[in-house]
């Protein structure tokens, strides 16, 4: 990811492992307004596969990630056309 992304909200899932970060992301996104961006902090490498797949299945926009030492900061924008947020 080249351009910095401004997050409206941050969800810290460091220390949590699959599938918990995706479950918590779905819960948080459900409460957000369309167009807002969520940053998810994680140290579980599996989220690099799971989060883009979850975004494809729900219709939210995956914006990419940055690695910060042993942690990842991933970005998702909530869309109006989200199919579902499970």
Structural write-up:
The protein is α+β, with helices and mostly antiparallel strands. It has one domain: TusA-like domain (Translation Initiation Factor IF3, 2-Layer Sandwich). The chain contains two helices and four strands. Strand 1 (9-12), helix 1 and strand 2 form a beta-alpha-beta unit. It is globular, with a radius of gyration of 12 Å.
Computed structural class: alpha+beta
Text of the CATH class: Alpha Beta
For the sheet with most strands, the description reads:
4 strands, mixed
What proportion of the residues form beta strands (DSSP E)?
25-35%
How many domains in all? 1
Question: How confident overall, as mean pLDDT?
Answer: 92
Low-confidence stretches: none
* Total helical elements: 2
Would you identify the CATH architecture?
2-Layer Sandwich
Quaternary? single chain
Backbone shape: globular
What portion of residues is helical? 25-40%
Q: Give the CA-CA distance, first to last residue.
A: 26 Å
Rg over CA atoms, rounded to whole Å, is: 12 Å
CATH topology: Translation Initiation Factor IF3
What is the total tally of β strands?
4
The CATH superfamily title? TusA-like domain
């Amino acid at each position: 990811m080249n351009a910095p992304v401004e997050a409206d909200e941050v969800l810290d899932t460091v220390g949590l492992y699959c599938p918990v970060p995706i479950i918590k992301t779905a819960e948080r996104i459900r409460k957000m307004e369309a167009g807002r961006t969520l940053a998810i902090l994680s140290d579980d490498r599996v989220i690099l596969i799971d989060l883009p797949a979850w975004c494809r299945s729900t219709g939210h926009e995956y914006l990419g990630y940055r690695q910060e030492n042993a942690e990842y900061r991933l970005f998702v924008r909530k869309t109006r056309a989200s199919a579902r947020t499970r």
